[in-house]
Structure to design on (475 residues):
């Protein structure tokens, strides 16, 4: 009940900011179109299109969550909430639910554009791409929440994006296949959650849902839980 | 019976001792003013009472329970010094949210809006309000759960004299119904509006008593002079 109050509040705040909403939905559509034109709709687009689609919500929600939570810390509303009968879990779940809804809308619209207008093809069911996108959004939210504890200003929070998100993108296997990476880079890649998120999305392109796919999904879900637990640990009722 | 009992409270912030060893009490059912210059430790004491301040020692008992304990979370209303409301929501949306978190009845929202005289601005986005209106919106969020203890950190800063008078009237009306209020201010002319005063200076309790008692004790006519006399007497 209180979780839903938090969700409704976060969504109401987002609704007041139509420009941000337009960017959340519009930018991935434009980038997908750009990717298609860049590779003239060829095999590279068909290979990278679905993973891109599924990874956008990760980036978006990382930024949105870290900034929103930072604002909550800086403006004192978090301090006020911490004196109220609201558990940390209810607060985090409320946030997660709100951004999950936004991610689902984002992934659905971008999917319609990519599959409908841009002729992107995946061998596997498209709904799996959307579901993975929502899971990645949750992962981005959870990591963004954790990262927000280490930023004092919005400038710092924004810089966490290239610091924490871009290396994961580069090493995920999207740009260079993991088999052809230097061994030590592959070890780092093994330790990054986005690697598994990418791998799961790559499976949808080939429609092979084997044990490896199940393991990927399990790792992503485990990382969401871990990041949420770490994020919850950074929410303190008492501060210095 | 005291609503708040602070015993040998010790707090350091950023390596600096803010409250070396503070003991004081807040009486139930009246308006207690927490007065002192800025930097005297008022906000730190308030944060310790509502249970959001890490403390190094001592005890703070609020309404019979340890400060910050779970059972107090719906009984203590807190207004932070900087207005803590969501700037991108309207006054009413903010209060509805806090009311849902506190489990307050739906009419509590409209009452809180009336109490702080924001009825004309209830559907304004909080970020577009003036400083005084913003601070009243933040006060309303502390009132909405009708808590037994209201802890207000400088609620009347930047308000015009009429609004200030109305708010102090509201504080006394609430005290009449049995609520306890602890109101901080760095403006001495507000001290006279309180039932009792806690005078804080450099983290120490300089004096405790009614405005009349403090005047008699120091022989001063204004509370400003009384405060000065108390500082000089200590030196």
């Amino acid at each position: 009940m209180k979780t839903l109050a938090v969700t409704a509040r976060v969504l109401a705040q987002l609704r007041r900011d139509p420009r941000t909403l337009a960017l959340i939905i519009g930018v991935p559509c434009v980038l997908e179109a750009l990717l298609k034109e860049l590779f003239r709709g060829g095999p590279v687009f068909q290979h990278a299109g679905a993973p891109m689609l599924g990874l956008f919500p990760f980036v978006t929600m990382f930024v949105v969550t870290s900034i929103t939570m930072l604002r909550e810390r800086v403006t004192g509303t978090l301090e006020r909430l911490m004196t109220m009968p609201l558990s940390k879990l209810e607060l985090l779940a409320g946030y997660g639910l709100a951004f999950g809804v936004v991610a689902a809308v984002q992934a659905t619209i971008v999917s319609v554009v990519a599959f409908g207008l841009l002729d992107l093809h995946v061998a596997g069911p498209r709904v799996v791409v959307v579901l993975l996108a929502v899971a990645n959004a949750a992962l981005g939210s959870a990591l963004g929440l954790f990262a927000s504890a280490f930023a004092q200003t919005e400038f710092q929070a924004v810089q966490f994006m290239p610091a924490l998100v871009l290396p994961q993108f580069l090493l995920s296997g999207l740009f260079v296949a993991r088999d052809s990476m230097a061994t030590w880079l592959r070890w780092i890649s093994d330790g990054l959650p986005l690697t598994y998120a990418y791998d799961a999305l790559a499976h949808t392109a080939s429609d092979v849902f084997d044990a490896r796919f199940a393991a990927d999904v399990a790792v992503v879900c485990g990382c969401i839980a871990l990041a949420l637990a770490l994020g919850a640990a950074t929410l303190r009722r008492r501060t210095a | 019976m005291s609503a708040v009992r602070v015993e040998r409270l010790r707090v350091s912030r950023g390596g600096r001792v803010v409250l070396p060893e503070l003991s004081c009490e807040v009486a139930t059912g009246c308006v207690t003013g927490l007065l002192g210059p800025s930097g005297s430790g008022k906000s730190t004491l308030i944060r310790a009472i509502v249970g959001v301040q890490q403390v190094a020692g001592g005890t703070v008992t609020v309404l019979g329970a340890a400060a910050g304990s779970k059972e107090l979370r719906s009984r203590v209303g807190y207004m932070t010094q900087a207005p803590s409301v969501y700037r991108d929501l309207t006054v009413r949306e903010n209060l509805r949210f806090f009311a849902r978190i506190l489990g307050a009845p739906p009419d509590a929202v409209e009452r809180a809006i009336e109490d702080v005289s924001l009825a004309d601005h209830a559907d304004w986005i909080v970020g577009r309000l003036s400083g005084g209106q913003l601070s009243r919106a933040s006060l309303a969020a502390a009132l909405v759960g009708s808590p037994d203890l209201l802890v207000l950190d400088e609620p009347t800063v930047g308000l015009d004299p009429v609004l200030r008078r109305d708010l102090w009237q509201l504080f006394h009306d609430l005290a009449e119904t049995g609520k306890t209020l602890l109101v901080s201010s760095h403006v001495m002319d507000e001290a006279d509006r309180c039932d009792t005063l806690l005078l804080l200076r450099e983290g120490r309790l300089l004096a405790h008593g009614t405005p009349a008692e403090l005047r008699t004790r120091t022989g001063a006519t204004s509370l400003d002079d009384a405060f000065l006399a108390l500082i000089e007497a200590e030196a």
